[in-house]
């Protein structure tokens, strides 16, 4: 989000962009020196929990006037999506309230529908009262945002469906002290809820891409379960189009659109800190294709007709990449050896 008024803060951005859906993250790049303050405008980044919400916001707010500035809203690089949104619009607060609760103390972290839980609950000692409390609760299933964990849970569920409960018991016995498999033991953590729902879903004949989103009761006298939302039709069209056009890149390679994006950034690169920083960040986020990224930058430096100022900006980019190659980003260290 660029050309923002300097009077806009994160709270105001949350209200403006949050009307389209829950936000995963929001950040304003505040000026750090006198030169940046003289621009009299800021830029920032907003991430949504769902792409469909981001698309609506981009279409609705691009060019929208805000405190005398026509803001520009475009697509940035992908960022990790947290398990809980940082902002939930008021009209979705009830539906999304489960994501703002740390722990309720109930099985599967079930949440009472009409109670704002801020501390762990204790089941009543009377069995009848306990069952009634659980029946009135709901378990919200949240998809893990870390891909390795998501893949591990999905594979585990698929194997248990194929091999039976003895396979699950065998893995639980073998991986008792393995933190990567703690989702099998802690029935209050979000990963376990996702695993239990995924297992149930597959046993009902559903797939990893299609499932029912209606609430259901998994256990007799248990809580209702709310499955996660599926990809929107727009998302599925984008994915299908990308597969058909070859836009889905091979491991360790940039897709055609990503290569074009990098070349466009290098062509328009200036010595301004913001532009060099954005390009460096993009390169770090695509560090799994570090070899191709480095080759592209090297080729751009070998073009004789390139203006000196542009070459200087690309050298600044190389310097920043090497300096930040120790960042805690997967494969970032690859830039030291390429």
In short, what is this structure?
The protein is α+β, with helices and mostly antiparallel strands and 338 residues long.
Question: What does the model show?
Answer:
The chain is an alpha+beta fold and 338 residues long. The chain has 13 helices and eight strands. It has helices spanning 10-18, 34-37, 51-61, 93-96, 127-135, 147-163, 165-174, 190-203, 233-244, 256-267, 273-285, 290-301, 308-323; strands at 23-29, 43-48, 65-66, 69-70, 111-112, 137-140, 216-217, 224-226. Strands 5-6-8-7 form a four-stranded mixed beta sheet. A two-stranded antiparallel ribbon has the order 1-2. Helix 10 (256-267) packs parallel to helix 12 and helix 11 crosses helix 13 (308-323). It is globular, with a radius of gyration of 24 Å.
Question: First CA to last CA: what distance?
Answer: 33 Å
Give average pLDDT, whole number: 79
Following the backbone from N to C, one meets helices and strands in this order, namely HEHEHEEHEHEHHHEEHHHHH
The proportion of residues in beta strands is 5-15%
How many strands appear in the DSSP assignment?
8
**Main sheet: strand order:** 5-6-8-7
Radius of gyration: 24 Å
Largest pleated sheet: 4 strands, mixed
Secondary structure tally, helices:
13
């Amino acid at each position: 989000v660029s050309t923002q008024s300097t009077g806009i803060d994160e709270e105001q951005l949350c209200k403006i962009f949050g009307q389209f859906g829950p936000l995963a993250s929001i950040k304003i790049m505040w000026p750090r020196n006198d030169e940046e303050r003289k621009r009299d405008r800021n830029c920032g980044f907003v991430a949504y929990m769902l792409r469909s919400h981001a698309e609506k916001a981009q279409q609705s707010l691009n060019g929208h006037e805000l405190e005398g500035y026509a803001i520009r809203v475009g697509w940035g690089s992908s960022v990790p999506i947290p398990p809980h949104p940082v902002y939930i619009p008021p009209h979705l607060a009830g539906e999304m309230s489960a994501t703002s609760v740390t722990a309720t103390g109930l099985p599967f972290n079930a949440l009472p529908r009409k109670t704002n839980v801020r501390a762990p609950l204790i089941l009543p000692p009377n069995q009848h009262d306990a069952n009634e409390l659980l029946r009135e609760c709901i378990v919200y299933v949240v998809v893990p945002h870390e891909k390795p964990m998501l893949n591990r849970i999905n594979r585990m569920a698929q194997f248990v469906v194929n091999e039976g409960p003895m396979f699950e018991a065998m893995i639980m016995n073998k991986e008792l002290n393995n933190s990567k498999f703690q989702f099998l033991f802690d029935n209050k953590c979000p990963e376990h809820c996702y695993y239990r729902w995924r297992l149930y879903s597959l046993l009902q004949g559903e797939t990893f891409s299609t499932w029912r989103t209606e609430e259901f009761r998994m256990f007799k006298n248990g809580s209702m379960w709310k499955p996660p939302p599926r990809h929107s039709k727009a998302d599925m069209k984008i994915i299908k189009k990308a597969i058909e056009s070859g836009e889905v890149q091979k491991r360790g390679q940039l897709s055609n659109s990503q290569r074009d994006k990098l070349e466009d950034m290098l062509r328009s690169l200036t010595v301004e800190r913001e532009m060099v920083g954005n390009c460096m960040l993009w390169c770090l986020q695509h560090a799994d294709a570090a070899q191709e990224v480095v080759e592209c930058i090297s080729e751009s430096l070998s073009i004789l007709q390139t203006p000196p100022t542009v070459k200087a900006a690309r050298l600044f980019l190389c310097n920043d990449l090497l300096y930040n190659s120790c960042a805690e980003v997967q494969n970032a260290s690859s830039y030291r050896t390429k």
